[in-house]
Structures are given as structure tokens and as C-alpha cells.
Prior knowledge:
This protein is of the alpha/beta class. It is 36% helix and 24% strand.
Amino acid sequence: MKKFLISVLSCIALSPCLSAADTLNVALALPFRAGSTPSNQAFAFYSGALLAIREAAEDSLAVNAEVIDVEQQGVSFTGEQMLSYDIFLGPFKPGEVSLLADLMPEGKFLISPIDPACISLVDSLRIIHTPTMVPWQYNQLAKWAGEDFGPADAVAVVHEASSSGSALEIVTEKLQEDQIPYTLFSVNSFEDIGSMLSEISSAEGVTRIILLAENEDFAKRILEVAGTLSDAGGVSTYALAKVRTFDSITDEVKAAAGLKILAEYFTDAGDAATEDFSRLCNKFYKCSPSQFTYHGYDVMRFFIRMFLSYGKDWACHFEGDRDKGLQTDFRFVRYGTGFVNTALRRIGYSKHGQILSMD
């Protein structure tokens, strides 16, 4: 198995927390190849992370980055090796994450960048989990609707009767905690949902619908009904990002329903920094960045910034720090023996179907 070493040196002044002798030692343990098939996801993530390393080296920092293909080499590390890394990023799979995190010495953490399933490991291992937990997303969805709530508004929580799950409990508990009145609709049939929502809709204020939907047809039908309420008064529909992936729901339907999305990942194509990054990717890689390219850049850039701010013991200080990436935002809080990301992005659809940041 090959190991690739990237060594970049810079003479620019360092952060006050660092001395000229301080070099950032990075490990990227990624699944580049499964058998004979390259992993586009891993290569895209790596290409973004590499641009963040390049940027840091050009600005202020000496960087040694070791890149390991865990699909070929495996996860054979020692605790002493782990101690030598300031940032250990990857791998993706829960089994490999568990094996490597178990080796992390005191003060060191493995950064889990991709798989939401790794959240089950965070409360017992030294892991920093960059995806945002789904239960937290539902909590923040209800919080958003509550923050928007006005005295003349009406709130409806709409879910499919056959699949309520924990999401419903989380949303209703948060609304009750924030003292937001709401009406619950457990939908068995679409025949009456239009008239039922019309009955509670607000003529003077805004009808705010919290949509709990895993099923595409269900989400589409509710959004279509929500769009008809805009004739009587304002309407806003709150949902998680999965609704954006449903191809059968047009932008016109989303706009008419006043759809507001809470998302882990969102890239503003018109943002100047995003445009610059896209040009840089085309320059070096001859292709436009994917979601994983942006994510690799954002994750690596954030933890490099923590190293620059706090030095080699950054993990003792970074909790609560906020950072806005090109696609992903970060704010970590303690969770068991590790940390989880709590930052989310708010986006919405304009009357013309344009996607807008609402942060």
C-alpha cells in the first residue's frame, strides 16, 4: 500500500498560538478504491481538502499531510502514530471509524466527515462528528417555525399517519417548550386535508405548516394543498432538506407553498467566494466542484482554522466556535466523549422559484 506525503512550507508569520517550529501534521484516511473501482466521493472530498491545505500553506503555515487509502492499506495504526497527528480526518465507514477512534489518545479526536451512522459512536469514543444529527434537525425546524410565529398566525404539524416516528415527538415537544400553539394533522387520506387545513388557516396572519415527510408523494400532495392556502393569506411550509431531492415536486409548487428548508449543506452559487472556489477547481482539476468537494474543503479549512487559533491542543478550546463554510457551517458541542455539529442553514423559495439563503 502506498502512502502519499505532501510537505508544504511557508515563511509568513504564524498565529500567536504557534511558533515557527510548529508544523501542522494532517492525516487523511480515505477509501479511495474499493477493489478495482475508484471512489468518486472520496476523491472529490480529498480534492477539496487539498485545496484548503494549499490555501493554509500559502497564507501562514507549514503543513505535512499524509494521505492513506484505507481500502487498500486497512486501518493498521498505533496509538503512538495517532499522537503525532494534529488533525486526523476520516475514514468514512462506521466500522473503520470505530477501530481508529479507539486508538485516539487523550486530547486527540478522529474527525468523522461523512456518514450520519457514525453518530452512534460519538458518545463512547473520541470522535468529532461533522454531519448534524437528524433529531436535532427536527428540533431546529420547530424552533424556526416558532421564531417566525406571529399573534395572528396558525401552525399545523402535518405527518403521515402510518409513519410518525420520533420526529413528531421532537417537533411537538419543541413547540410546547416554546409555547407555540399548533394543530396536529395525522393524514390517512388526502381527500379531506385541504378543507382541514383551510379551517385552521389564518386570513390575517400566516399559516405555518411543519411538514414531516419521508414519502415523495405525500410531500408533493401536502405542498400542493399548502399552495392553495396562499390565496387566502400567507403560507410558509417548513421541511428538512430531503424534500428538495424529490424530483416530482416542481419549483413552482415549492414557491407557492412558501417552502422553507433546513439543510446541512447548501451552496449559494452567486456568492463571490463560491464562484472563486469553482474557478479554482476548474483550474486544478478541470471540473466543477461537487457537494463532496465543497465538504472536503469546508471541513479541512475549519479544523486548520482551529489549529491556527488555539495551537496543537485546539480540541480543548474549539467547542462553541462558529464558522461559515462555502457549503457547510460548523458549531460543535460536547456529546458524550466526542463532539457533534449543531450548525444548519436556512433556505427558502422565492415567489419565482429561486432558492435563497435565509440566514
